[in-house]
Amino acid sequence: MRYLLLAFSFFLVTSVLCQSCKEEVTSARSMLVAADSMMWSNPDSALLVLEQIPDSRELRGEERALYALLLTQARYKSCVLLENDSLIQIAVDYYEGGGKQERLAQAYFYWGCVYMENKEFPKAISLYLKSLELMPKKDSIFVAMLYSHLGNCYNEQDLHSTAREMYRKGYNLCAVKDSARSFYALRDIGNTFLLEYQLDSALCYYQQALKIASSLQDNECLSLIYKNIAGLYNELGRYMEAESALSKALPYLTVEEDYTSACSIKGDILNSLNRNDSAVYYWKIGARSSNIYVKTSSYNHLFEGYKKMKDWENATVYVDSFILFYDSIQMMNYRAELDELMDNHLIELHKRELSVRNQRIVAGLAVLFLLFMFVLVIVYLWRDARRKKEYMALQQRLMENRAEVMLLNEIPESASNTKVAELHKLEEERFSICVSIFRTTEGSRKLDELKKATAKMQVSIADTYRQVMVSDIRKTFADVMKDLKEHYPGLTNDDLLYCILSLLRCSKFIVLCILDVSSDAIKTRKSRIKTVSYTHLTLPTTSRRQRQMCIRDRNCSIVCLTIDK
User: Fold this and answer.
1) If DSSP codes are grouped into helix, strand and coil, which group holds residue 115?
2) Res 161: pLDDT
3) Does residue 276 lie in a domain region?
4) Which of 63, 205, 240, 423 has a Cα-to-Cα distance from 265 of 20 to 30 A?
């Protein structure tokens, strides 16, 4: 009887636990469904629902994968930073196992979003393309969003024409179904033209976007497009139109920070129009900004404005404010140096009060500091020695390469059927060595800096360091340029420099900056290089070999210069 009671009790407990588990699973599943249904309209609410799922770590299988996908999606739509891909990877691993192709496409998309937020654009592009391949074309809105993200990634890599093509594809998909998304697509197309300084084209698309924003009566869209148009007009020096556009944007700026910063900019535009009193009014509003840089700029302009009006009392007030905030900015920029100075100052203040024991501690810290500096010097010397050793090794490889080429050239044409192939291999190796040597130069560092800079900064960097970059390129690639000159005697020194820049995969704009020529001049040079190559074709003989040198332009298209021997 006792054993029967124990067995019955065990059965009851087990039944309750099973029922409880079933209820928890059912509850989690219903919450996932609810979050999925409200994701597009209310992502914040969807995120709240997902975060309230009990024991989310206990979810398994499809529920776990869906939870990981929806949570990543909700966080992204709610502007929560996606720091790593550990969560979305759960969904990817599950859906890659088979079935639910659309969910896998979504998982790839948000995996790409993680990489995009972390500035790893090539990885993001690869995942977006995978998602694009899998996502059914009937879901035009999602596909349009994919094209928009692809465009953003290409833009970040200065591939503006490719980005523009992506934005156009997205616009074609959503032009009828989604006016708001059409607005952003047209705005983005305009931005690509603006980045390429094609201002008329940019203005055309901005105006189209403005029509959509006006029809939607969307204040956020109106403020965005009017600010863009104002910036474009300001770039053109058309200050009246810039002021008018910015005035139209101001009523729709509901966020205080956006409003004050826009007022500061309007003050600058009005100052260019010699409307000093109005400029002062808007600078005063800009001075209320919580952004220290906007505030400092506004105070500086107020000082200059009142000084121009010979109002020395107000000028003195605002110059004091400007100095105060400017000093604050300097403190933020040089906090480490200031902290070090403060520490040294405090040490000096308390030095007299130190006991013998404290003095020993200070001495010990000084020894540790000196030891640390010694280690730093040793590390620096070691790295410098290693760089020199690597440089010497590269030079030795280059000399060996030259020797091998000379030996091959001494072999009669009929004595070796592989001579041309071997020579081609050695020339490729020579170029690779020259690239490695170039990477050790100041010119290479400035070229990398030029590639990463903004369009405006690129012009300044090129003007300052053009001679250094050109000199290092000509010096390190002397062997490559000599080979090109031998194959194509009609090439000039500037032609050879253009070829090297193309082989280094410099964008068209960077090539323009370094060569200091116009876009038409580059087109003419490319055409002439092709012409030079074809004028050196010889009549065919019984023994004919071909060699190709591939020059990659900004779009990585291939121009083949073929020489018959």
Assistant:
1) helix
2) 92
3) no
4) 205
Torsion sign over Cα 433, 436, 442, 444: positive
What's the first-to-final CA gap in the chain, in angstroms? 105
Q: Is 348 left (phi over 0), alpha (psi -120 to 50) or beta?
A: alpha
Exposed, middle or buried, 424 (CB in 10 Å: 0-12/13-18/19+)? middle
Whether 520 and 549 share a structural domain = yes
CA 307 distance to own-chain centroid? 41
Task: With respect to residue 420, please indicate whether it lies within any of the assigned structural domains.
Answer: yes
User: Across the chain, what does the average pLDDT equal?
Assistant: 77
448 & 565 share domain:
yes
Please write the tens of the pLDDT for every residue from 525-547.
888 787 766 555 443 333 333 33
Q: Cα–Cα distance between 202 and 247 in angstroms, integer?
A: 20
Domain tally, the chain: 3
| 539 DSSP assignment | P
Please check whether residue 188 lies inside any domain of the structure: no
Q: Give the mean pLDDT of 267-272.
A: 86
Q: Is the dihedral of CA 289, 291, 292, 295 positive or negative?
A: negative
Instruction: Map residue 42 onto helix, strand or coil.
Output: coil
Coil, strand or helix at 545: coil
How many residues are listed for the chain in this entry?
565
The number of angstroms, rounded, from the C-alpha of 382 to the middle of its chain's C-alpha atoms is 34
Q: How many CB atoms lie within 10 A of CB 102?
A: 13
Residue 173 structure tokens: 């998909």
Statement to judge: residues 461 and 542 lie in one domain: yes
Residue 418 lies in a domain: yes
What's the rounded Cα separation, in Å, for the pair 205 and 186?
A: 6
pLDDT tens per residue, range 297-354: 888 888 888 878 888 877 777 777 778 777 777 766 665 454 554 545 444 555 555 5
Inter-residue contact 275 to 294 (CB < 8 Å)? no
Based on the fold, state whether residues 410 and 453 are members of the same structural domain. Answer: no
pLDDT at position 204 is 93
Find the domain containing 546 and state its range: 441-565
Are 535 and 555 contained in the same domain? yes
Say how far apart CA 152 and CA 501 lie, in whole Å: 26
Q: Burial level of 408, CB count in 10 A (0-12/13-18/19+)?
A: middle
3-state secondary structure of 558: strand
Are residues 415 and 477 located together in one domain of the fold?
no
Q: Is residue 291 a contact partner of residue 257, using CB atoms and an 8 Å limit? A: yes
b/e burial code for range 502-534 (CB count within 10 A of at least 16 → b) = bbbebbbbbbbbbbeeeeeebeebbeebeebbe
My answer on whether 421 and 474 are in the same domain is no
